[in-house]
Write a structure and sequence with these properties.
Layout (H helix, E strand, L loop, with lengths): L1 H5 L2 E6 L26 H11 L4 E6 L10 H14 L4 E5 L7 H9 L4 E3 L9 H4 L5 H14 L4 E8 L5 H13 L4 E6 L16 H14 L3 E5 L8 H6 L3 H4 L6 H7 L6
Parallel strand pairs: 1-2, 2-3, 3-4, 4-5, 5-6, 6-7
């Protein structure tokens, strides 16, 4: 937590604490209906971010299949509220799949999202075990759609390792993500929330994480952040700010973002 705050970065979870999906790896409470939305939540998140002096804000959520717009409007309102209150901030949205609806994805992007993140979570073979209500190809479509709608927005995804995947399957997922236009990938160790969740099949060493990151970057990713404790938003500002604009068309190396990164230099 100290590491994140020292980098002027934090993640906020919106749309309540009850998820309408039942993933085998996730410790979040699940149910057929989520909580009633708080209409003032976007403004409260923006105010909290301002009070904390944040420069890079990650917005994530539970999945809300019970809502007509699956929460996309709430995402958009939160991004707009942050941008209005902290004009020089950068906002990353780590979203559910919205059933790959182009309209819902566009709502989030058009609000001013700088980085659109949607996690593939695991390799194709393990999808139905890890997240039975999601779909590997649907998630790739979400990322591809986001990049098509907003080519200058950074697209990002993440994989958990240790669920029984093979290295060749990880590289296959990497190729699929690159084909969908993804620039940034995170790799982290799966940790079992309780005895009722999926078993950890393997603990990956830091050296193997580093090797995978190097090999995946050689395949074409602009940045791969990998390690046992890495999660989707780990060092998110630092990663964003150091993306090479000449290769990606992304605004990450703009002078303003170098200034934002100044908060991380002594961390």
């Amino acid at each position: 937590m100290q590491e994140c705050y020292s980098r002027n970065t934090a993640t906020f979870m919106i749309l309540g604490k009850v998820c309408t999906r039942h993933c085998g790896f996730c410790g979040v409470e699940s149910g057929s209906l989520g909580e009633v939305l708080r209409s003032d939540e976007p403004e409260r998140v923006a105010f909290a971010a301002q009070e904390l002096g944040l420069k890079y804000i990650v917005i994530t959520s539970v999945t809300r299949d019970d809502l007509d717009d699956e929460g996309a409007g709430h995402y958009a309102a939160t991004v707009r509220a942050i941008k209005a209150m902290i004009p020089d901030s950068r906002v990353e949205t780590l979203t559910p799949d919205f059933h790959a609806s182009e309209d819902l994805i566009a709502r989030v992007l058009e609000a001013g999202t700088d980085v659109f993140n949607h996690n593939l979570e695991t390799v194709e073979r393990l999808q139905k075990i890890a997240r039975p209500q999601a779909d590997y190809r649907r998630s790739l479509t979400v990322l591809e759609t986001a990049k098509r709608i907003s080519p200058d927005v950074v697209t990002k995804s993440g994989l958990m390792l240790g669920l029984g995947e093979t290295e060749s399957e990880v590289f296959e997922a990497g190729r699929h993500l690159l084909s969908a236009g993804v620039s940034v990938l995170t790799l982290g160790q799966y940790l079992r929330p309780t005895a009722h969740h999926l078993e950890v099949k393997e603990y990956i060493s830091p050296g193997r994480f580093a090797d995978l990151a190097n090999r995946l970057e050689a395949m074409g990713f602009q940045k791969v952040v990998a390690g046992p404790y890495v999660r989707s938003s780990y060092r998110a500002l630092e990663t964003y700010s150091r993306l090479p604009v000449e290769n990606t068309g992304c605004p990450g190396r703009a002078k303003h973002d170098e200034i934002l990164l100044g908060g991380e230099k002594n961390a």
